[in-house]
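Let us practice reading a record.
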Amino acid sequence: MNLLEQLKSYTKVVADTGDFESMIAFQPVDATTNPSLIYAASQDVKYQSLTDDAIRYAKSISGDKKVQLSKALDKLAVNFGLKILEIVPGGVSTEVDARLSFDKEATISKARELILLYESTGISRERILIKIASTWEGIQAAEILEKEGIHCNLTLLFSMAQAVQCALSNVTLISPFVGRILDWYKKDRGVNDIPATEDPGVLSVTDIYNYYKKFGYKTIVMGASFRNTGEIIELAGCDALTISPNLLKSLESMDGILIKKLDPEKAQQMNIIPIQMDEETFRWMLNEDAMATDKLAEGIRKFTEDLIKLEKHISLLL
């Protein structure tokens, strides 16, 4: 078996793409999207029908342009999700507007709207994960949504503080960003490369995985944002990994023996001290972690930038 086939025997492989043909080619169990991927896909004439349908839907709801734009964006995200669900046997993650990252109530409201759109087409909420940034407010929103049976994927996660609070809030899944952590440390250290075995992003996800398994948390750890296959190989055994098509293709072309690096039984034997968490502790721990603070803020800004590009594109069609 090639490395991708071996990886699938240890870890759930999720496609990090908005391209349906890539999903068909690599046959992941689940898929995840974000505004960046949807914006890129919406520029492709192959997906014009999804955009057209979102425009028609928005115009049928209201004559107000601002309302139309909001409804069109929601429907477009759901349309892509529905198309993905025709391909993958599992579920899809659909993202809440990053500009709501510090507004708990607005995040909850938007998540409910997205779920209702899916359910109106006959898709069960069990197949949907609502992606929310891992701010304090985002995690608090997710805790409430989970109690309503709305599963959440907490994204832009860079620190143990975020991971611990997500677990305490019974979040379904977290997406720690491996490659973006690597990017920060390469710049901070003034180096061009860090070996995968010493990669700070890999080490962060490994620590989070071991912490969860040590204390029996059910929250799924899904490594995300990879820069190279070495990072993926070092995280073989993680609950799930969301991987871009180009890296999936690279793994498919690689032979050799893939060693399972992460193991719940080994984690349970480790001497790990539990972390007591409240809002003050969360904010202090995050503040003390320069990398996590920088990358969380940057991630929210970048997702917002791409969402604004998508808004401009859609607004021209309304």
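A brief commentary: The chain has a mean pLDDT of 95.
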